Amino acid sequence: MAETALQLDLSIFFLLAVIIIWFMIAYQLVLTLAGYFHFLRSMKEKKQIDGMTFDFPRVSVLIPAHNEGKVIRRTLQAMLAFDYPHENYEVLVIDDGSTDGTGAIVEEFVSCDRRVRLITIPKGEGGKGKSHVLNIGLKQTRAEFIAVYDADNTPEPSSLRYLMAQMLLHRKLGAVIGKFRTSNRNRNILTRFINIETLSFQSILQAGRWKLFRVSTLPGTNFVIRRSLLEKLGGWDEEAITEDYELSIRVYMEGYKIKMIPYAITHEQEPETWEVWRQQRTRWVRGNNYVALKFLKEIPMFKNKLLAVEVLYLLSLYYVFFFAIVASDILFILSVVSLIAIPLPGPYTAVWILAFVLFILEILLALSYDREDNLKQIVLVVMMYFTYCQLWIYIVAKALYLDLIRREKRTWVKTIRFESEPGPE
Predict the structure, then answer these.
(1) Cα distances (angstroms) measured from residue 20 to each of 12, 24, 353
(2) Could you give phi then psi for residue 69, rounded to 5 degrees?
(3) How far apart are alpha carbons 96 and 116 in whole angstroms?
(4) What distance in Å separates the CA atoms of residue 376 and residue 369, rounded to the nearest whole number?
(5) Which among 413, 408, 420 is positioned nearest to 128, based on CA atoms?
(6) Is position 314 within any domain?
(7) How far apart are CA 68 and CA 418, in angstroms?
(8) Could you tell me the residue range of the domain that residue 261 belongs to?
(9) What is the largest CA-CA distance in the chain?
């Protein structure tokens, strides 16, 4: 009797895992196809914008900086190369207690170009996270539009112009985001995995959701937002360690939209060691935990119910993915060693294989937008599933442990920089 009950429990668990995994695969496939159509539409849109004339307003570019000596010089060189009217934009570097000479490097640019300003956070007021730094920067300018870039970013000259063109064409947009590419993607196996992950995320979840639902989220860099909206929302939430994600939800709650355009491109440095990657990703998940707790009870009050469903999915994405991977691993291992036998009839082996094949095809289609779909990438995607994806189990579990069991205070953990590449690879 006990054995029968165990088999019944395993059967239910198995079916639930299959349903969740196939829901994710099917939904991601829909988003991938939608992202592809958004990409095609965006290329036509880009040609139209290139033929238009705009009266561009003043923009302040905010760059939070803490010990960015390895990357800040190339970043500022890229910022000063924007093909945006030079008299209508400024670059504010907010130095958050750097001890590696970051301020001195910025001062070199300040002395040569009046578009660059250095704001130094007084001793004792720094180290409170990116949100705090951005709020300080916001108070130092009266520009109508605010652009945000991380200190390791080297945007293409046209990126700011393309972002601002969208803001001028569509008044209901609260913000516009571009695409980020991995500048050090060929450094090692980790950066290659991250490159696949970030391109897939942008082409599927960002572009696909915009095409279907007019929803995308701020990425933390390479975006422009209206100053009036920021002030209405009270700036960035200084308790949030994923300030971009938290602000995105408030933008939509206020009735504005965030558009993703894939032709406004910046190049950024990604972690080159597993330890730096672990720290960064743990911060991301813990930041998501904070946002989930903050907004979960407010979702039923959203006027836009489709948006409410999409936000709920976004908030639960880490945990749905966590359950799907864990369930898949457990069932696979127990079946291989013949410790369990699922008594349910059906071609389940074929179902699992088909799901895996679809996962690979979705990633390759997403990579094709940036012409990175090739045989080598297929091998990397397969390797990635059995290694990189599995590590997310540890990341999500640790974040939940720190937040729910240890109740450890969330603090901003800076992503360590590495020596810059000579240029985008």
Answers:
(1) 12, 6, 15
(2) -55, -30
(3) 16
(4) 16
(5) 413
(6) no
(7) 9
(8) 54-192+219-272
(9) 82
